[in-house]
Structures are given as structure tokens and as C-alpha cells.
Design a protein that fits this description.
The chain has helices at 7-24, 28-36, 44-56, 75-86, 107-118, 231-267, 279-307, 313-337, 339-343, 349-359, 366-378; strands spanning 124-127, 143-147, 150-160, 168-174, 185-191, 197-200, 210-220, 224-225, 269-270, 273-274. With 389 residues, it is of the alpha+beta class. The protein has three domains: 7-97, Butyryl-Coa Dehydrogenase, subunit A, domain 1 (Orthogonal Bundle), CATH 1.10.540.10; 124-229, Butyryl-CoA Dehydrogenase, subunit A, domain 2 (Beta Barrel), CATH 2.40.110.10; 233-388, Butyryl-CoA Dehydrogenase, subunit A, domain 3 (Up-down Bundle). Strands 1-4-5-8 form a four-stranded mixed sheet. Strand 2 (143-147) and strand 3 form a beta hairpin. Helix 6 (231-267) runs antiparallel to helix 7 (279-307), helix 7 (279-307) runs antiparallel to helix 8 (313-337) and helix 8 runs antiparallel to helix 10 (349-359). It is globular, with a radius of gyration of 22 Å. The two termini are 15 Å apart. The model has no long low-confidence stretch (mean pLDDT 96). It binds flavin-adenine dinucleotide. Flavin-adenine dinucleotide binds at residues 125-129, 134-135, 159-161, 203, 207, 209, 358, 361-363, 365, 367-368, 371. InterPro entries: Acyl-CoA_dehydrogenase, Acyl-CoA_DH_CS, Acyl-CoA_Oxase/DH_mid-dom, Acyl-CoA_Oxase/DH_mid-dom_sf, AcylCo_DH-like_C, AcylCo_DH/oxidase_C, AcylCoA_DH/ox_N, AcylCoA_DH/ox_N_sf. Residues 6-121 form the Acyl-CoA dehydrogenase/oxidase N-terminal domain. Residues 229-377 form the Acyl-CoA dehydrogenase/oxidase C-terminal domain.
């Protein structure tokens, strides 16, 4: 058993770390100011400029298959890179990527949707959640009815990340109510120009998802993604990726926050000594380190399992649950260690506090991850003892 990084993984991780520190983190004070004014933290032009610079270092399409011009890095390496991205709260991501299920697009769809998305010329969003169907995605009601060469979509989607600015949406709708999610749900590529509406939903964090309305939106049959009836499977595949990317990012944020706490605990004095000398502060620091390391290994095991070409649903559920809950406990303690200063918007802790809360909710809540984990054990799909059983 070797739990260390390879030289290649270390090099890539260090280059990503240095890029984020030199090129992205300097924008942090401006991001805080803009968000305080209710603006977006980073403009599309700034993001594209940063991504173009990152491309020169090879950070382009880290998860994109080589046939589409990507680097197609193995999952563990991708996870390490996402952790570096998570160290900053600038809403940055490396370019050259598309929603993983878009790689299944037909050759014509690749020209119209996939290629421009990879190049950053078009923005996509993924829409399955509805007002009456969140955790239970099998309960969606949006109908798509065949009419000649078109499908006609009617219904509502909600909480769609990027829905306000997206040029097109990957929308999952019901094409056969009797079959339901077992062959009756289909994914469509729907241009904004086809007529859907999007209204922002204001949240406690930096994310402003959209509520999307579809009234008789006509979508040509050639815009079906994959096969008719394959929508639920594609949706689960889309969500599956987030389950190791989200906690990978959470680990980066957690590392940075813990670093801030250690620095502050060594400087701030009360009762004639640094607060780091008080045992209750030491307990919080130790618990943060414990949370961080437990989450890190859960995430790496999930990424490694994918890298072995094995199904990683169980491991990804553990990683998402472990990473999201650990980050939330850590950001709370780090705020506590900073006292009143932690609560102010002078420091980014309160921003991370608001953002991290989302990690326990979207792309499968804590409870849904627990449900997956427990049901796997109860049904005997997983042996107790994990990989070493
Ligand atoms: C900022 C943001 C961005 C989002 N982005 C997207 C997006 O881009 N695309 C998209 O399609 N969706 C998106 N979502 C939707 C998100 O995935 C859902 O909000 C999430 O899956 C939970 O669904 P829900 O809100 O309907 O809660 P519900 O499903 O109504 O759940 C309510 C509560 O009940 C619990 N619960 C539900 N079922 C069970 C069960 N079986 N056992 C135990 N507890 C249970 C839940 O864990 C939760 O605590 C986003 C949400 C937010 C907040």
C-alpha cells in the first residue's frame, strides 16, 4: 500500500497551487467588494481571461476526453486540482470543460453545443429539479409531448445553477408517464431562443440559481440527448461527477480556513497569552485537522475507485457526505476561533460559512447520501470494511 502522490501528481498539484495563488487569489478582495454590492464576483470576460492564461500551463479540459481536445486527467489528479481551486473563494474554474453527459452528444449536437461549451463561447445549465421533485428526481412532472418532428415542453424547473445566464439548458422531461424514470424520462438540449424563461432565486450564498418556465417550448427531435427514455440515467451520471468534485473543492476551502485559524491562534492574545495556548482553542484546531484528514481520504478513495474503472457510487456518497459536513464544522470553528472578527465581512470566513452550507444540500443532500450508504449495506451490496474487506 502506497498512500503518497506520484511525482506527476505532485507536479500537477503544485503547478495548480501556484497558478491559483499568483493569478486567482489576488482577485479575492475585489470579489468580496463586488459581492457586497450585489454584483457577480467575477465577470465572464475576467473568467475567460484567467482560463486562457491557465491553458498555457496545460490546465484546460482536465476532465474532457482527449478526442475533444481535453487533458482527460485521471480522477485522482482531477480531485487534487479541484482541491487547489477550492483554496480560493474566487468563483473560478479551469476552462475547457462541458457537462460530462454532453460528451454523449451526436456529431451534429457536438458542433452546436459541445464544442462551443468547451471553448467557453456558450454556457450550459443542467435542469432536473422541479418545485415538487428535488431529492426524488423520479417525481419530475415536466411533460415533453411529440408533435411531428418536434417535442413540446411544458412545466417548471427550479434551483438551476447558471439558468440566468445560460445559452442553453440540458432539460430532463417526462416523455412516457407510465414508464416513469425507467425509460420514460428524456434529456433535451434546449436553446434559450426556443423560449424558456429564467428568474433569479436569491440565496444566502454567492449562488443565484434560476427558476425556469417552459410554456409550449418546441424542441426539434434532433435535440434529444442520447436516446429517448435515457434521461434519468444521464441525470444520475451528471450528478455522480459532482459527488467527488464538490468535496474535493470543500477540502481546499477547509485547508485554507484551518491555515487562517492556526495563524490567528498564534497571534491573537487574551489573558496574557496567545489564544493557541488555551486548550479549548487547541481542541477546535485538532478537531478541524481530524475533519479535514478524514474528508481528504474519503474523497481520494472515491476518486481512486473511479480511476480503477469501478462503480464509485458508494464511495462518492461517503466523500460528498464526509467532505460537505466536515467543511461546515470546520468553517464554524474557524469563525469561533476568530471571535468577533470572524463574523465580519472584513474576512472571508462568513462568506465561506454561507457558501459551505450549500454543499450539504445540492447534488444530493446529506440525508440522500446517508440513504445510499445505509441501503448499500442493508441490501448487502457493500461489505463492511470497504476496500479492505
Ligand atoms: C443553490 C442551488 C443550486 C442548485 N443547482 C441545481 C442545478 O443546477 N440543477 C438542478 O437540477 N438542481 C439544482 N439544485 C437543486 C438541488 O439539487 C435540490 O435542492 C436538492 O436535491 C434537494 O431537493 P429539494 O430542495 O427539493 O429538497 P427535498 O427533496 O424536498 O428535501 C427536503 C428535506 O427532506 C430530506 N429528504 C428528502 N428525501 C428524504 C429521504 N428519503 N430520507 C430522508 N430525508 C429525506 C432532504 O434531505 C431535505 O433535508 C440546486 C439547489 C440549490 C439550493
Amino acid at each position: 500500500m502506497d498512500l503518497g502522490l506520484t511525482d506527476v501528481q505532485r507536479d500537477i498539484r503544485d503547478t495548480a497551487r501556484s497558478f491559483i495563488a499568483k493569478e486567482v487569489m489576488p482577485l479575492e478582495p475585489e470579489v468580496l467588494q463586488r459581492e457586497r454590492r450585489g454584483e457577480k464576483g467575477i465577470t465572464r470576460a475576467e473568467l475567460r481571461d484567467l482560463q486562457a492564461r491557465a491553458r498555457r500551463f496545460g490546465f484546460w479540459g482536465i476532465g474532457t476526453p482527449a478526442e475533444h481536445g481535453g487533458a482527460d486527467l485521471p480522477p485522482v489528479t482531477q480531485s487534487l486540482i479541484w482541491t487547489e481551486v477550492g483554496r480560493t473563494y474566487v468563483p473560478f474554474l479551469f476552462g475547457g470543460e462541458a457537462d460530462n453527459i454532453l460528451y454523449k452528444a451526436s456529431p451534429e449536437q457536438q458542433e452546436e453545443f459541445l464544442r462551443p461549451t468547451i471553448e467557453g463561447d456558450r454556457i450550459s445549465c443542467f435542469a432536473i429539479t422541479e418545485p415538487e421533485a428535488g431529492s426524488d428526481a423520479t417525481a419530475i412532472r415536466m411533460r415533453a409531448v411529440r408533435d411531428g418532428d418536434d417535442w413540446v415542453l411544458n412545466g417548471e424547473k427550479t434551483f438551476i445553477t447558471g439558468g440566468v445566464e445560460a445559452d442553453f439548458a440540458i432539460v430532463v422531461a417526462v416523455t412516457d408517464a407510465e414508464l416513469g424514470h425507467r425509460g420514460g424520462h428524456t434529456a433535451f438540449l434546449v436553446d434559450r431562443s426556443m423560449g424558456w424563461t429564467a428568474d433569479p432565486i436569491h440565496t444566502m450564498g454567492p449562488s443565484t440559481p434560476a427558476s425556469m418556465g417552459f410554456v409550449d417550448v418546441r424542441v426539434p427531435n434532433r435535440n434529444v440527448l442520447g436516446e429517448v427514455g435515457e434521461g434519468f440515467r444521464l441525470a444520475m451520471e451528471w450528478i455522480g461527477r459532482g459527488r467527488y468534485v464538490i468535496p474535493s473543492r470543500a477540502i481546499g476551502a477547509t485547508e485554507r480556513l484551518l491555515g487562517m485559524a492556526v495563524e490567528y491562534a498564534n497571534e491573537r492574545k487574551t489573558f496574557g497569552k496567545t489564544i493557541g495556548e488555551h486548550q479549548m482553542i487547541q481542541t477546535m484546531i485538532a478537531d478541524c485537522e481530524l475533519d479535514l484528514e478524514q474528508a481528504r481520504w474519503l474523497v481520494l478513495v472515491a476518486a481512486w475507485t473511479l480511476e480503477q474503472g469501478r462503480g464509485a457510487r458508494h464511495e462518492a456518497a461517503l466523500a460528498k457526505l464526509g467532505g460537505a459536513t466536515a467543511a461546515n464544522r470546520v468553517v464554524d470553528r474557524v469563525m469561533q476561533i476568530h471571535g468577533g472578527m470572524g463574523y465580519t465581512s472584513e474576512l472571508p470566513i462568513e462568506r465561506w460559512y454561507r457558501e459551505a452550507r450549500l454543499w450539504r444540500i445540492y447534488e444530493g443532500t446529506d440525508e440522500i447520501q446517508r440513504r445510499t450508504i445505509a441501503r448499500d449495506l442493508l441490501a448487502g451490496r457493500r461489505r463492511i470494511g470497504g476496500h479492505l474487506a
